[in-house]
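Comment on both lines for my students:
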Amino acid sequence: MSPGADSGSRRGRLAESGRVEAFSDGVLAIVITLLVLDLRAPQDRGAMLHRLLEQWPAYVAYLASFAYAGVIWVNHHQLFTRIAAVDTGLLWRNLALLLTTSVLPFPTAVLGSAFQHGNHRDQVAGLIFYALVAAAMAATWLLLFHYLANNERLLTEHTPASFFARERRRALIGVAAYLLAALAALWQPAAGLVIAVALPVFYGVTSEGWSSSRDRRADAVSS
C-alpha cells in the first residue's frame, strides 16, 4: 500500500484506512446503543399503559437520533470507499466527527425530556441545544471534505479531489439548516423540530455524494 508514498514521506506518513473504519464503526455502534437508555420502564402500578404513552416525545427523539446516527454511519462508510490511505491530519478530523457524534445521546435525552416534562421555554432550549450539536457535527464533515479536497494522495485511484470540493456544499447545507432550526425554535419549537428531522433524510438520500445523487436523478429522467 502506498499511494503517493514519495510525497507522503515529505508531508506525513500514510497508513491503510481499515483500522480507522473499524474504530469509527465501534464508536457509532456504541452511540446507537446508548440512545435507547433514555427510554424508561414505567414504575407506577396500574398506570403502565398511560405512562408508556406519556413518553411519546422520548420515542420520537430516539427514532430521530437513531435514524441520524444510522445516516452518519452510511455516509461515513461511503466516505471511506473513496479513501485509500489516511494521515495524521485526516485522523484528527475523523476524531472530531466522532466527538460530535458521541455527544448525540445527551441532546437527544434533553430534547425528549423538554417535550415530555418541560414548558415552552424548555422546549426551545432543548431544540436549540440539539440543533447546535448537530450543526457542530455538520461542521466536522466540512473539515473532512475540505481536507480530502486538498489531499488527493489519500484518495482511491478513481476519486478526484474535485468530488470532495463539491461535497463541501452538503456540509454547508447542514450547518446552515441546523442553525435555521435553532432560530425557528425561538419562534416555534415544532418548526425547528421538523427541520431537524428532515435533514437526516436529505443526508440519507445523498449518502453516495452530491454528484452521485444528481447523476441518478438525471438517469431516471432520461430513462
Summary: Residues 1-10, 215-223 have pLDDT under 50 and may be disordered.
